């Protein structure tokens, strides 16, 4: 089976997490801005699409070169053996982007790239008329940065954050792969309590449960590359999925709770957890932040509270931060991870974070405020 140069793309700030995931899967990696490079066969393509919790997409690098003129772009693109990837009836849309490059007109870059591929395939397949493009879709991208061209084939289709379980999302949802990143950054162990006090549609607790059971996050969805019969041997996809399913631990008991002040959001969270097959693994309950109390120890709190972006919301949001501080500071064995775009969070919470980490929630700059607990080694789940 052929080995490809691959990249896993990622949101800015979590590339290192994607790199760690790939290393844990056994790959050698090179972490770059917004992506991680690695190598693998089509089996690895399907495997990483299934398993990567924090990545956006998995792509095959088809070609990489410098180009400062459209003639150079055309010639170098045409010289690539596209027939090794694209069958005669392939539907191959070409997206483009360009930054700080002489070839800055993106529509022209896309058109020239497409024309070069068409010319190559027409010669190889002996076609004098237009290529049909009636078969499976092979999404291509030409990305130029500082005159360096990267041609890639997207193996994922819909972004990896679309796990398939979110039937309803409510307002301002957190993407599933960002929620998974928060779970991983919290260094939570599945034998300890996990709480999301402002759970909204339940994404963070659901991602925690998937992680806790070692369930591949992509197990209930398909990927566009699984349609490529010329590249994916018959039965390979089922084989990789069976291997992933065998690694899941469905028997482990998890202590995961999600709370929200809005009963409608709790109903949505329960609907989503049912769709994920995790109904019995997460307890969702309507509860205000200030009304939560616990005698458990060694737990983890992960929260994505409202940011108070509108002036009218700021006062109520700052009051919420105060309530969090008053409740959580005495929980010395608990670690707390709170994501917000409010740069004054620590002031209202009432304590300086152990560590802050810059993350992007979509295009919005946020900070993950981390308050590390001191674990009680003599007890695991509850005080007697």
TrEMBL record:
Single Gene Ontology MF annotation: methyltransferase activity
Keyword line: Methyltransferase, RNA-binding, Transferase
Sequence ranges assigned to domain THUMP in this UniProt record: 44-155
Matching CDD domains: THUMP_AdoMetMT
InterPro entries (alphabetical): DNA_methylase_N6_adenine_CS, RlmKL-like_Mtase, RlmKL-like_Mtase_CS, RlmL_1st, SAM-dependent_MTases_sf, THUMP_dom
Record bears the keyword Transit peptide: no
GO biological process: methylation
Pfam families registered for this protein in UniProt: RlmL_1st (PF22020), THUMP (PF02926), UPF0020 (PF01170)
Gene3D superfamilies on file: 3.30.2130.30, Vaccinia Virus protein VP39 (3.40.50.150)
Keyword RNA-binding appears in the UniProt entry: yes
Annotated protein name in UniProt: RNA methyltransferase
């Amino acid at each position: 089976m052929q080995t490809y140069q691959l990249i896993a793309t990622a949101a800015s700030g979590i590339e290192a997490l994607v790199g760690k995931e790939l290393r844990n899967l056994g790959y050698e990696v090179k972490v770059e801005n917004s992506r991680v490079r690695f190598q693998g066969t089509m089996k690895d393509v399907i495997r990483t699409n299934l398993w990567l919790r924090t990545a956006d997409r998995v792509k095959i690098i088809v070609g990489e070169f410098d180009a400062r003129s459209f003639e150079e772009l055309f010639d170098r693109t045409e010289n690539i053996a596209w027939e090794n990837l694209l069958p005669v009836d392939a539907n191959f849309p070409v997206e483009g982007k360009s930054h700080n490059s002489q070839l800055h007109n993106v529509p022209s870059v896309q058109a020239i790239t497409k024309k070069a591929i068409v010319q190559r395939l027409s010669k190889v397949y002996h076609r004098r008329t237009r290529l049909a493009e009636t078969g499976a879709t092979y999404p291509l991208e030409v990305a130029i940065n500082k005159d360096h061209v990267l041609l890639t084939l997207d193996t994922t289709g819909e972004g990896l954050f679309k796990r398939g379980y979110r039937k309803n999302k409510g307002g301002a949802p957190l993407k599933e792969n960002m929620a998974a990143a928060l779970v991983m950054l919290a260094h939570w162990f599945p034998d300890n309590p996990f709480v999301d006090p402002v759970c909204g549609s339940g994404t963070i607790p659901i991602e925690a449960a998937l992680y806790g059971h070692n369930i591949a996050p992509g197990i209930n969805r398909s990927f566009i590359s699984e349609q490529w019969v010329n590249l994916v041997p018959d039965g390979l996809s089922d084989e990789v999925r069976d291997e992933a399913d065998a690694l899941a631990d469905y028997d482990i008991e998890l202590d995961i709770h999600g709370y929200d002040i809005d009963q409608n959001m709790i109903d949505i969270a329960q609907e989503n957890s049912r769709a994920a097959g995790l109904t019995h693994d997460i307890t969702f309950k309507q509860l205000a932040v200030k009304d939560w109390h616990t005698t458990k120890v060694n737990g983890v709190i992960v929260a994505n509270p409202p940011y108070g972006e509108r002036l009218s919301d700021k006062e109520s949001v700052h009051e919420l931060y105060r309530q969090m501080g008053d409740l959580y500071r005495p929980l010395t064995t608990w670690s707390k991870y709170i994501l917000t775009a409010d740069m004054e969070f620590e002031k209202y919470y009432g304590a300086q974070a152990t560590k802050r980490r810059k993350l992007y929630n979509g295009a919005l700059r946020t900070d993950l405020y981390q308050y590390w607990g001191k674990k009680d080694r003599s007890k695991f789940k509850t005080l007697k």
